[in-house]
User: What shape does this take?
Amino acid sequence: MCLCPCLGYAEYILVNPSEEYRCIMQKVYEKMSMSKIVIEFLAATDDEESYEDLLHEIQTAVPPVGLDCTSFTEDMLLSHSQFLVEQVESYDLAADDDEDQLLTRPCLRDLIKRSGAILGKGKSGRRRIPRTAVKKKAHHSMATTTPLVRNIFDTFFTGQIDTKAMGPRRRRCGVCEMCQLPDCGQCSACRDMVKFGGSGRHKQACMKRRCPNMAVKEADENQIDNEDDINCMNRSEKNLQERSPRKKVKTRQRSKNCIQWLGEPVKEKDRSYYKQVMIGEDTISVGDTVNVESEDDHLPVFIIQVQYMYEDDDGNKEFHGCWFSRGSDTILGETSGSNELFLVDLCDTNPLTSILSRVNVVYQPPGSDWATVGGREDYIDEHKEDTTDFFYQKWYEPEFARFEDPPMEYVHRDSGIDYCPSCVRLLNRVKKSSPMVGEMLSSGDGKTVYR
Assistant: This one.
């Protein structure tokens, strides 16, 4: 390792320091080695690395020959942080106009916060050294509206629009060395300025006067926005996973000593599937609707449509069914009829001993003249409430309080022995929310292209 100071008349190469200056040069060599490690680490990685990743890179690096230390520590990193930040600033000055600044990386911002390094203290007369081009990563941009649309939203949605997204423009600090420099008159931003003969259309600051404090602040705000988006996605995924009715209702097993299977079973893996079962005096078949009692005595019985029944190798006799939702559990509340049910994408597996009885539930599609018969007395008499029989016409989405016609998965049942329309719809929803590659088109040169 050698030190090469460049003066106005000559360049001096200092190889080995004398014994009087050896202790002083050890600190200089530490700074030089750590700055090389930090810049190479930032240039070789993406913008997702953390302070812990940078610290791990420093601690695992092997010091060059000539240093008294055997490894770099966090104390060295924090003590030399001001020098490292200035070196990264100097490295960013040599970047092209369309390249991202390494100073805005999360790990470097954390280092600045932990050490209290001051930005914009570097010398302005440093020689401009070309740097390797770094591929620019795409960023999300905010939506743009016309004045007419913006006024409509401001009028009808007052108090609901996030005003933070339309906050004041970010301003440079005005005190760092970069802010104090004059316009160079040579970069693309200066050539566009009116005072240099440009059109003044872009209204960008001189590239040599890029304020590091404003860049770091902007990166921190973008990181907070990204974390909010990630938290929103995690909440949506969690809500999707919590759609299981096991967390909503719990059934209580009722003692039934006589449970007898009817027909021949279909053996698959560790289960034997049946199409009919005798529970007491009731014969339950696949596709029938049954009542299931809840542990909460204050709640009405639950209504479930049996999708398939089986007995496993341990002797457990269970059934899997789709739940119906009563009108009082929807957005209609008590205004709905007591004998009208709604399909929902909820299913569960319960023991056969939890079944109370069989119940009659039929599908009544609305007539073609449904828009004209509402409110007629004869129509009300035809749909007089009956506590023993139920009917359903619509499928209900609790998350958006939306009623729709029954999905195709419920109308056209698959012939599979363990088919459940609710499970199929939930699986398709998870697939839509998870990225998946398509058919592979080609592979070569270290790349694989998918459709």
Summary: The radius of gyration is 35 Å. The longest helix spans residues 212-241. The chain has a mean pLDDT of 77. The chain is about 30% helix and 20% strand.
